[in-house]
């Protein structure tokens, strides 16, 4: 395990100042692992059916709790944002850490509902400051997602990345408002990779996918 001390320091700083701290980033970038290090008094994972059921009536549950409360995958229950506004005003001593994707809907809801009450930390995968200098080749080859970087060998890392991309294209990308088949979107990603470090021609991409350049620009 790689200690992410800089991120932890920043999170603790935000918690000390804001009643709500949001850790945002792509799936599997390490948000949950980082939050678990905080040793919260109460931890809710909304992808866990048991925790989701516990929050069927969230006010009855949350208003009785004190200390540090973590709510993971909060985008699965957006109605919690308005409740959190009431709870932090009602009991400012209780602190909340919410985890979720950096989707436009989640950012808009949190900014509109919790303005002035929430601080944001955007988490990505590992960077050079977090890994040993001798491992820069592995970081370059496997990428920065923890599960890929820490895989026992390159074969497992490559397999994990393939599975991650499939899941992202088929499930997660719709959170960004992009309604297109995973097959077409994979083709789009492959095309973009050939434009790396070059000027993107939206019209050429659009003709290849039978879409107009405005749509391509929006997807990108």
Structural class: alpha/beta
Average pLDDT, all residues: 89
Report the C-alpha radius of gyration, rounded: 20 Å
Can you list the strand order of the major beta sheet? 2-3-4-1-5
Contiguous low-pLDDT stretches (5 residues minimum) are: none
Straight-line distance between termini:
33 Å
Describe it.
The protein is of the alpha/beta class. The chain is built from twelve helices and five strands. It has helices at residues 5-17, 31-37, 49-54, 58-62, 80-90, 104-113, 136-142, 146-149, 154-172, 182-194, 202-209, 213-219, and strands at 20-24, 42-45, 68-72, 95-100, 118-122. The chain has a five-stranded parallel sheet with strand order 2-3-4-1-5, with helices on both faces. The longest helix has 19 residues, at 154-172. It is globular, with a radius of gyration of 20 Å. The two termini are 33 Å apart. The relative contact order is 0.13. The model has no long low-confidence stretch (mean pLDDT 89).
SSE blueprint:
Layout: H1 5-17, E1 20-24, H2 31-37, E2 42-45, H3 49-54, H4 58-62, E3 68-72, H5 80-90, E4 95-100, H6 104-113, E5 118-122, H7 136-142, H8 146-149, H9 154-172, H10 182-194, H11 202-209, H12 213-219
Parallel strand pairs: 1-4, 1-5, 2-3, 3-4
Helix pairs in contact: 11-12
């Amino acid at each position: 395990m790689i200690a992410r001390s800089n991120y932890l320091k920043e999170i603790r700083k935000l918690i000390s100042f804001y009643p709500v701290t949001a850790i945002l980033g792509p799936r599997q970038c390490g948000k949950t692992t980082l939050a678990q290090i905080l040793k919260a008094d109460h931890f809710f994972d909304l992808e866990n059916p048991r925790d989701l059921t516990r929050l069927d009536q969230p006010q009855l549950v949350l208003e009785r709790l004190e200390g540090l409360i973590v709510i993971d995958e909060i985008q699965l229950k957006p109605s919690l944002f308005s409740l959190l506004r009431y709870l932090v005003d009602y009991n400012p001593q209780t602190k909340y850490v919410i985890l979720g994707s950096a989707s436009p809907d989640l950012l808009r809801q949190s900014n509109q509902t919790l303005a002035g009450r929430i601080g944001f930390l955007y988490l990505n995968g590992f960077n050079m400051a977090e890994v040993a200098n001798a491992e820069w080749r592995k970081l370059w080859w496997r990428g920065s997602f923890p599960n890929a970087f820490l895989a026992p060998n390159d074969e497992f890392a490559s397999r994990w990345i393939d599975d991650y991309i499939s899941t992202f294209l088929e499930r997660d990308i719709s959170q960004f408002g992009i309604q297109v088949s995973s097959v077409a979107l994979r083709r789009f990603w492959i095309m973009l990779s050939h434009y790396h470090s070059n000027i993107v021609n939206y019209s050429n991409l659009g003709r290849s996918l039978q879409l107009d350049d405005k749509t391509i620009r929006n997807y990108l």
